[in-house]
Amino acid sequence: MMNLSTVILKFIGKCEKLEMLTLGKYHLKEIVTQIGLHCNNFISLSAPFNYFGKDEAFALVSSLPKHKYLDLHRGTLDKNAVVMILQGCKQLVHLDKRNCFGFNGDDVEILELASRIPSICEGSYVEPDWYYVDYTIDHDYLDYCADYDDYDL
Fold it and tell me: How many Å apart are CA 108 and CA 111, to the nearest integer?
């Protein structure tokens, strides 16, 4: 039985006129590489909720340097990956990095590199909101709950 990533890779190999694609959490590096090999008209990649480290960014920049629309919203992006994408994808006209985390959206280097892109959806965080949730155990509450025996009811 083939997994979904294998099916997508075979499909892309046969779609030379493919112009845009939205990907879930699949083997992004391999898929982007295949798009670069087979799809000469490709201009738009949407990959929300994905992780972009240096390997993923390198695959994107080296395989799809001429694409124009990139949607990475709600993804996890290393600062170095963002810089690599902004430096390598010089034809971007739209970048969506809303609600991403892993880098500071107010970083001077990122802002300077992104300033040439006409349409940017901003809003990133160094860490997600839930990162600092207090999971401290309330021992007084546990002792209170232990005083009740469900079988006595």
Answer: 5
Tell me which H or E stretch contains 44: strand 44-46
Tell me the C-alpha distance between 128 and 132, whole Å.
Answer: 8
Place of tokens 């920049």: 61
Cα separation, 113 vs 124, in Å, equals 16
User: Collapsing DSSP states into helix, strand and coil, what is residue 139?
Assistant: helix
pLDDT in tens, 6-30: 778 888 888 889 999 888 776 788 8
Say what the pTM is.
0.75
Report the distance separating Cα 117 and Cα 95, nearest Å. Answer: 7
**CB 45 within 8 Å of CB 72:** no
